[in-house]
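#onboarding

Welcome to the new folks! Below is a worked example of what a typical request in this channel looks like: someone posts a single protein sequence, and someone else replies with the predicted structure as tokens. Don't worry about understanding the tokens yet, we'll cover that in week two.

Example request:
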Amino acid sequence: MTAETIITLRDLRFSYEEGKTVLNGLSLDIPAGTVTAILGPNGTGKTTLLNTMLGLYQPQGGQINVFGKPLASYNRRDLSRLIGLVPQFEEVPFNFSVLEFVLLGRTPHMGLLSMPTDQDFYVVVDMLELLGISDLRERSVQDLSGGEQQMVLLARALAQDPKVLLLDEPTSHLDLSNTGNILKVLKQLAQKRHVSVVFTTHDPDAAILSASQLVLMQAGRVLDAGPLEDVLTTEKLSQTYGTRVEVARVNGRMVALIK
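Example response:
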């Protein structure tokens, strides 16, 4: 049975004002209920792709449909109830506690100038427990480590109660322990919470550890997309990175080795 497609991109084109083409006729289907890794070298357009999927960037050409409707037909509030974003990094200008910061994720569900309800607090506490960071709730976000901040950004996005979660290079600044924690959580979100997860990465091993679907990007185009086992091959990875990358199995697990 073919999985439902939740986001459809067709012939997407995007260029910055200085004329650099970043997305060049990109087409892609994102299936529901999966963890999809968008894999490619730095500078290939992965972050730009996430921002266009969220409606933060307006493409110069092509079409984006979200749950069968044109992206442009959603207002910002309704789209925020469907899609959450975890940026690679975010400067926190105010001295928010973790609890206060994660509560900001409930904004799409609150009326203008309304105060958080008991339900809003319940959702936030649930997200903190899910991610194992309840002990941080009273601490200042500005005082947290990089790994802790990444978990708090994830909690805020999940507090939106989104159907789709987008993450930009979620493990790029983390140590091995925090990387493992984040990737484990992403799999749990898809399997137990039925959240469709899409994340960008330049690290094949991050994709191997968490994703069931894989998208290979190069120079603003999709080279290949589909189930991880079908797409993650020596030939395709080598083409993506422009160097020899061998896919092998070590103790039954796939690994990518630069030759």
